[in-house]
């Protein structure tokens, strides 16, 4: 991928739905949208029916009238969408907030497998790690508010694009201008951000994961600037059952689908099919 080619700003989409085969749900992180999954979804669609919805309160997703955005209420909405699709269970891959929602859905018995990529929610309540997570997210509230006043200018601003690429990825040159435009537009259209930030401070965080029966693969990134793996990955590494896969991505940032979609598609597909083949052999 080249980071120099110009492309028109994308439009918000309520969901990506493509391919055929194993049902696979892809969940994006806070401030993002289904666009962050586009390239990965296209690769996975060769062997899976892929559904990547816009989470409530995010660009392309529904706004909740009461403004009560949390991992649980977002999971409620996604669960209703799964019911509409006729998917009693499915494979789930979630990034950041999407990973947190993925764990919530796994608790509800909706996940055949779960791939959690740089998942959020891995802090104790209360804890220093929890406060650091909120401190990372909170400044985005006034920043995105100020940028919204500038109309479309931030989308075309080289500095804003660089900041977003630097925040979310390690190899910034691997991210196209079109993808960065989608990231910026999504960040500017996220009414859920204040409630999710407050929820990070109030808790609760993820429930104890030691008794999860869903096959889990947790993927952490060594260059994650949003939820550094050394602090935010600790609970996942320690608490998940021994059967869970634990992978550390080298030279990757918080949203690795943007910089290396093929690598992430392969890791998701590998987990899906290894778990399926294991169940057949039992």
Automatic annotation (TrEMBL):
Cited InterPro entries: AB_hydrolase_1, AB_hydrolase_fold, AB_hydrolase_sf
Gene3D superfamilies: alpha/beta hydrolase
Classification via Pfam families: Abhydrolase_6
Keywords noted in UniProt: Hydrolase
Entry superkingdom: Bacteria
Species this protein is from: Nocardia speluncae
Protein name: Alpha/beta fold hydrolase
An example molecular function term from Gene Ontology annotations: hydrolase activity
Domain AB hydrolase-1 positions: 24-266
């Amino acid at each position: 991928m080249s980071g120099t080619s110009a492309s028109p700003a994308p439009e918000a989409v309520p969901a990506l739905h493509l391919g055929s085969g194993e049902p696979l749900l892809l969940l994006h992180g806070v401030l993002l949208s289904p666009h962050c999954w586009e390239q990965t979804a296209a690769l996975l669609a060769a062997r899976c029916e892929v559904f990547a919805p816009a989470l409530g309160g995010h660009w392309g997703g529904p706004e909740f009238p009461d403004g009560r955005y949390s991992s649980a209420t977002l999971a409620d909405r996604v669960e209703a969408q799964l019911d509409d699709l006729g998917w009693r269970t499915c494979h789930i891959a979630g990034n950041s907030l999407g990973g947190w929602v993925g764990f919530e859905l796994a608790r509800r018995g909706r996940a055949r497998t779960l791939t959690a990529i740089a998942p959020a929610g891995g802090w104790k309540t209360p804890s220093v790690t929890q406060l650091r997570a909120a401190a990372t997210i909170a400044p985005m509230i006034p920043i995105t508010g100020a940028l919204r006043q500038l109309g479309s200018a931030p989308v075309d601003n080289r500095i804003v694009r660089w900041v977003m690429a630097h925040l979310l990825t390690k190899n910034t040159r691997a991210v196209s201008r079109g993808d960065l435009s989608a990231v910026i537009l999504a960040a500017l259209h996220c009414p859920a951000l204040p409630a999710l930030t407050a929820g990070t401070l109030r808790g609760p965080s993820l429930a104890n994961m030691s008794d999860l029966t869903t096959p889990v693969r947790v993927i952490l990134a060594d260059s994650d600037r949003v939820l550094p793996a050394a602090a935010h990955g600790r609970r996942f590494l320690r608490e998940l059952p021994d059967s869970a896969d634990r992978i550390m991505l080298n030279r990757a940032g918080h949203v690795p689908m943007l910089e290396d979609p093929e690598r992430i598609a392969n890791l998701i597909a590998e987990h899906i099919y290894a778990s399926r083949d294991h169940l057949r052999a039992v």
